Amino acid sequence: MGRADLRLVGFGWDPARVTLIRGLCRLVWSEWTHVVEKNETVQRAEEGFLRELEVTEGLKIPSHEAEVTALETSQESRTKASVKLEKLRVMLEKAGDAVNLLWLKLELEGISDLQQMAASSGRDVGEFYAAAKRRKRAVQRLLANERGVTLSDEEP
Asked: Where along the chain do its domains lie?
């Protein structure tokens, strides 16, 4: 609209030929058309540059759509994983498994070595190995519940 106003002031306006409203509408339409054409030209130039980079440098730059899709997929995966971890945490709390709850906490903090976990918690490393077996059974029960299959506590 600002550019249309500038054109109106620069070229003037003859009220005998056209009304002010029609003159402004025509100038706005003209400016909008030029902006659309300019944007299309810039987009074609960018696409040509990216193709040239791909051919000469071997660079493959993903499209914005591919980046957004990958980001959405990543966020969706993180959400699903956090929901599953929360279900596991609730199951471990119900079972009163303090060692596995400690393992889960330390794992989320970035400590994945059982020796480091034992050293930082003051527990014996054997407790963490025994907890891993219980955790494996708990995860199997969670996965079976997601599939609609029920496992008894005696099954490995």
From this structure: 2-57, 79-147
